[in-house]
């Protein structure tokens, strides 16, 4: 039995968020799943999200919102696609069929529609559908959180921020999960470069809820974007006990921790975090966030001249099964880093060919629409860089610098591609490219003053081009 604190049918009705089921147990399990999603934490006493999904389906096999949240969570995880995974495609179809066959609320129908649109890669329309729900039901955390994640996947920074701002006046401290809004708002503020406000809001959230891993994560971003390395390191050390239990985000927060060591040039410390935490997590969880973090960390270290030995080969065993997914370009670029690092040219070629094929008829898939203009040239640039063709790599990268936002991810995550562009420029033989590289470093130094990494690159550029 689920704890009494979870909301039953009547509790959901009282909040104006009616769930179309007569099973109190199903309603409570839905609440448990949503809560774990928001907290980024599997509750082992409940069997985690997976255990709750199984129990929910047993409690009411035809509960539409139960199907919507379980299938929606798998989709937003981006580790699988309905294009290749027939079981997942069937789960989407089943949810749509149940919604059409039952007398459910308009809000629930919109949820199903949004989930179906997301499954086709139509991120903008999926977000619109969740926003339609929030207009009339601003305390629907399921809609708010799915919209938040969808905006993130398409690099829609302003909508991600404003989505939370719009609903805030309607939330009151007695609303369940109210305390987790600060982390979401803070993340939107920092991704729109409002770092002081983002820090303040995250701190307020952590004062209420020290274990809000998303607010911790938001502060990590603020410190990263302001290059406040020592402040970040002391924050992580001080709060580790609060956020390491949030198993769905702990590895990502460890990734942020490791970035501080790369920033300082303390590469062994970063590798230690990779070996003991990040790679171990990504192998056991199979979660896409954990996987791309592992890819990114190794690539950043290698750009810095660190020998990562056979780690590429080990990570390749994790990424290779995803080479044909093409859910997001962000993921694809990270898989390519690994196949290049592992020297598996056939997988690199297959990834590129698959992307090229999908770019020809993208349909309503937002990411596939960008495959031709952003995806292919970025992949080609990474290949050229890997082969030592630095002039060509830079000339492919430079026109993408303001277009890359659409691949999704955060400013901190996408900074890897800015670093790659700087490295390609510095290693280029053409004076013009070298000059542009120095311009890029001046930009970095102005936007993120006192960055040890930027200063290191500037010194290197002076030595190379004097």
UniProtKB/TrEMBL annotation:
It comes from the Eukaryota. InterPro entries: TPR-like_helical_dom_sf, TTC38. Keywords: Repeat, TPR repeat. Belongs to the TTC38 family. This is Tetratricopeptide repeat protein 38.
